[in-house]
Amino acid sequence: MQSSVCCSRTQIVLVGSRIEPLTFKLSSCKVIQCKVEYNSSHTTKSSLICITQVRILRAAKREGLIRARLMGARKAEGTVLTFLDSHCECATGWLEPLLHRIALNWTNVVTPTIEVISDSTLAMSTATNLDSMSVGGFDWNLQFNWHVVPERDRKRRLSRIDPVRSPTMAGGLFSISRKYFAHLGSYDPGFDIWGGENLEISFKIWMCGGTLEIVPCSIVGHIFRKRSPYSWGTGSVLKKNSVRLADVWMDEYATIYYERVGGKGNYGDVSERKALRQRLGCRSFQWYLDTVYPELFLPRHALARGPIENAAVPYCIDSPVSHHESGRTIVKLWPCHGQGGNQFWMLSKNGEIRRDEGCVDFPGGDNVIIYNCHGGRGNQEWRYRSDGSIYHALRGLCMEASPGNKLTLASCKPGNKRQQWKWKRQVSAAASDNKRL
């Protein structure tokens, strides 16, 4: 089953190509039990035995999550829309705190605090700590991530239960004024299936005059699956969606994403979405970075960027970067492919070789690893020198493509091509050599 839930203030609209028996708890309202009856062939229109607060819409074909939500939003009649995934569980009293914030200001868009539901036991965690909440961000691969509440936002809150501003939302769990959703142009109807819609709507909420908040007193559990339960068809759906949002909303910063994914590819016509942005008089993406998310590392501040290719062999430094795998991912050498991705790196002014929040780290021993960037130099301080060597400042060793094409650190040997690396500089090499990074 692929379905989406769109709650208005007075009703639930269920959208999907196939709907099965369901149970909902609407905050302090009584439990609503629904039964959907099919005939033996499952081909005719189903009948619903339920109270009238629930309506079911059935798509004629598979539309994907994004268009299913648009379909539900068009039919909803309440003043507030609340979008939920079908694999959620709502705690008692989850809805009222969301509605309260929108009642105060129709441009407030609010998300609940998300707890994790185990995909194997269906048990919901109770791990939320109001003193150490996280807010949403993103990296330059346009992937959502979590980070701690910045000090400036902690100072803004008068109480630990006050809403906290968030640069982005995690996904599809949020409430918004129906009028404001329409004002913003809803989701991009050119998006396919799933992916990127959370960042697209987050950017335009902030850039077009709204505020995005996480509400601590609203608790909703969500199942985070280990893998996608359905097929995505051909081509890269996520890349297409992300290129569309980058082209419309990210101004000159869109090129950073294109560099990561090997160009734009085919992403359709976005002229109507650009016209929407112009009509709304939205701010620039630079304003968003400066005002809403100044904590994000900007590639323009990098001293070098792109793939790091060895001078002796056509191999590049290659590794995925994952916050959850910090300290466990070994950096390897892999044939250079020119597609960015796991071979795209930046050299920061602090000497970090990084991709977003993951840094190349040498703790000693046999392996170079990926560890969360900490800003403390130490194991993460590297110098890209004028002879092409990459020098580890703490250990006094140089990166080397050893025989067998394994990435190691060894005593520096001038003229050794296996210790020389080609990396596109953005400042002079002399400046990197003569200044402490």
Automatic annotation (TrEMBL):
Cofactor section: Mn(2+)
Residue span, Ricin B lectin domain: 306-424
Pathway(s) where this gene product acts: Protein modification; protein glycosylation
A GO MF term: polypeptide N-acetylgalactosaminyltransferase activity
Main location: Golgi
GO biological process terms held by the UniProt record: protein O-linked glycosylation
Stored CDD domains: beta-trefoil_Ricin_Pgant9-like
Membrane topology value: Single-pass type II membrane protein
EC number(s) given by UniProt: 2.4.1.-
A Gene Ontology cellular-component term: Golgi membrane
SMART domains linked to this entry: RICIN
Record's keyword terms, sorted: Disulfide bond, Glycosyltransferase, Golgi apparatus, Lectin, Manganese, Transferase
Domain of life, per lineage: Eukaryota
Places the protein is found: Golgi apparatus membrane
Database matches in Pfam families: Glycos_transf_2 (PF00535), Ricin_B_lectin (PF00652)
Family: Belongs to the glycosyltransferase 2 family. GalNAc-T subfamily.
Name this polypeptide is given: Polypeptide N-acetylgalactosaminyltransferase
Protein species of origin: Macrostomum lignano
